[in-house]
Amino acid sequence: MTDTTITAPAQFPVIKRRLRFLGLTRDDTIRAFFGGNALVAVIVLALITVFLAREGFGFFAQNRMNLEVYRRAGLEYVDFIRQQTDDHTALTRYLADIRLHWFAVLTEQEKRPVNDANAALAPFDAFAEKFAAAVEPLRALASELGEVATAIKTKFAVAEDRKIEREQLLEAGKEAAAAGVKIEPIDFATELEPLLGTLPAYKQTSREFARGLVTLLDSAPAIPTPELRRRMDNLKRLTRDYVAGFPQIGQKLETWDFTRPVAAGQAFTSFVFGRQWLTASFWQDWYGIIPLFVGSLMVGAVALLLAVPLGVGAAIYVNQVAGVHEQRIIKPGIEFISAIPSVVLGFFGIAVFGEALRQLSQVSWLSWMPGFPYGERLNILTAGCLLALVAVPTIFTLAEDALNNVPRAFKEASFALGASRLQTILRIVVPASLSGIIAAVLLGFGRVVGETMVVLLCAGNRIAIPDFTHGLAVITEPVHTMTGIIAQEMGEVVRGSIHYRALFMVGLVLFALSLAINYAAQKIVRRYRISIG
Amino acid sequence: MNPALHVFAARTSGVRRMERGVFWLFRLATYFVLLCGAVVLLNIFFKGAPTVFKSEAPFINTTFLTQAPESLYIFEWKGRRMELGDREFRAFKEKNPDAAKVEAESYVYSAGGIFPCIVGTLLLVLGAMTIALVLGVCAAIYLNEYAKEGRFIRFIRLAILNLAGVPSIVFGLFGFGLFVIFFGWNVSLLAGWFTLAFMVLPVVVTASEESLKGVPKGFREGSLALGASKWQTIRKNVLPYALPGILTSAILGVARVAGETAPIMFTAAYVVRDKLPWQVERFSDAFFQGVMALPYHIYVVSSKIPQNEHTERVQYGTAFVFLVLVALIATVSIVLRNHLRRRHQW
Known about the structure:
The complex is a heterodimer of chains A (533) and B (346).
Chain A: H1 26-56, H2 58-72, H3 75-109, H4 114-120, H5 122-133, H6 136-171, H7 175-180, H8 188-196, H9 199-218, H10 226-244, H11 246-255, H12 264-272, E1 277-278, E2 286-287, H13 290-321, H14 324-339, H15 342-362, H16 380-404, H17 408-416, H18 421-432, H19 434-450, H20 453-458, H21 482-489, H22 498-527
Antiparallel strand pairs in A: 1-2
Helix pairs in contact in A: 1-22, 2-12, 2-22, 3-5, 3-6, 3-10, 3-11, 6-8, 9-10, 9-11, 13-16, 13-19, 14-16, 15-16, 16-19, 17-18, 19-22, 21-22
Chain B: H1 14-52, H2 62-66, E1 69-77, E2 80-85, H3 86-95, E3 105-112, H4 115-146, H5 151-165, H6 168-182, H7 189-214, H8 217-225, H9 230-259, H10 262-265, H11 294-303, H12 309-343
Antiparallel strand pairs in B: 1-2, 1-3
């Protein structure tokens, strides 16, 4: 007998009472919490951009002001004349160079004693002295005008400070005190009058200077050797060119107009293409990133030149040639190198390596190396060698990963066709992982350019574009870098000043550079990956 | 040719010789790199050890490890060469009034010890790693356990990847702009902690995620099948097994946090500070004080004072202690990891 009555289904015994929190169940809340943490990376990246830009972008307005004052106060005007005297200094340096060579000829080739050689050079010295002295009236004029211009600039700066003071007082509600702050209005036209009034005097001096130089050239002493004669002729030609440029300078001074506005773009271009980074100067501050950028690039290039063969070579060796036991020693060893703090490497460079390398450069049989021997112990080469040690572990690890990802089948197929191990490695495995290796090199470069302490301690910290005229010898010159300048000057600048903002701009450039390198590395990996399988 | 060799024996041909030559080149490159690293380390160990160790009991130079830095004074006194620290020199002058006029060479930071720097570095590492581990592990849990592949996740991964490439000095600038100025924390431990934590975040996230990936899928499925909620599964059946790997990520992070100088230069480090971190009036002040730190001290003593036999002691000694400290922290983490790994095995 069957009972066909249908009973209602029993209620499910477990009733889940869900705690709700802001409309979310507990699990949802936990999930949201973790998700929020994951977002931190995005937020930090955004914050870095925002804060670097917040502190940095004010630079352009301030730099425009800076350039405007440079023009209004007549510093630009005086700089035309100063440039003229500086060019003359370069010529006298060339003259001194000729004397050095001549002296060498006398003492080394003709084996004359030093006193005798000096006596023989007496007429030349007299000539050089006259040549150097010819500029004096012009230089006196330039320095006189320079004082006028700096006085106007100082006056302007004082007035600006007063304005700020008054605003601060007004903000604090001290109206009476604010009214007491006297601001002297500056009328640039009247202030500049004495400066511009000297134009006829300048023309007179310049004309006499030109005439003096040309007549002096005719009285140049006779030169014995053809080599020296060539140099002397070169000097004469350079001097004539120099003198021929005078009317142009006069024209520039005549047409110069202090009211001409500074273009907004100039504040930007003077930073990006500026060839001078000059701060806390009595004359005019310049914030051009080129010397720092070139410095970073040079150090990075030297480091990569050393690190790429070593890092990639080691990766190939460990991945393709070495046995398991050897791998077990080498891999942690190289990872350990990457754990050496960079400040310790920098200290090692200052205390030991810089001097050792300098001593090595003095060894005579190494003098074929570019730039050897050299005197400065801290330079591009020292920093580059140490940075190579920073870059090698990065390049090694990433390149080894890339080599590891090449499928076994590629190798086996190559062996099956009768290729040797070397052929397989160089023709199959390395090309197959080339995109990864290039990405490794790029990321290594990013690591090197972003490295601070080693370059700060070992690159020599001279803010100037290195002299490329001697070819590869440039690697033995000291430079300053983008990272180094931030680390060195950030602690000393006034908050909110133009210098402070310029440093943030340098940081922004570094940040953009690192993002670009990262982006390029990812692009290369994705684009040129050999389709596997 | 040896006739005893069988037909398939490798013959020394030119190709083979070249192959061997090229392999030797690779081998040389590898060992050259290792050699360079060894030279740096050994140089610092051999020159730094005499500062820290002594030949008589208790074999450790306790003044160097427990005192604050002082200036070193060197002078001739009654035919003897005296080298005294700041306090000793003052006491000496009081005892010998005619010593007041003595001409002494002085070198800053070259006497005394580096105790405040050690304490500062330890505090910085502890705080920064705590923040980084909390943020990093949670982020890794989300990325590996909860998230589904999509545009949002790809965006987060991209951000992490890019964050890893940002130069440390840029982190320093960022920390200065955000924490020191905008939040008004001034040069303080707190600012240093956050700056350093954000810097190591990518390392921690990536390594933690790897270790979470290493936990077999069956563990999660088994737990979920038994009716556990997602969070219970993660807490009881995933995290314990991933912990050794997460600690490895902590090791990687510690080495970076302790070693970086650039981010703390403007956010947390002082060149010199008389008070120790716990000598504060209120408890809350402890977070808003700057500290001395070993890496920054190395920078100061190697760039701001001349290199000679009197200053070498403190320079190499500091570098030595610094390296040993980093190695020590790493070793502790490794031991801890091995211990945990033995407890949770599958």
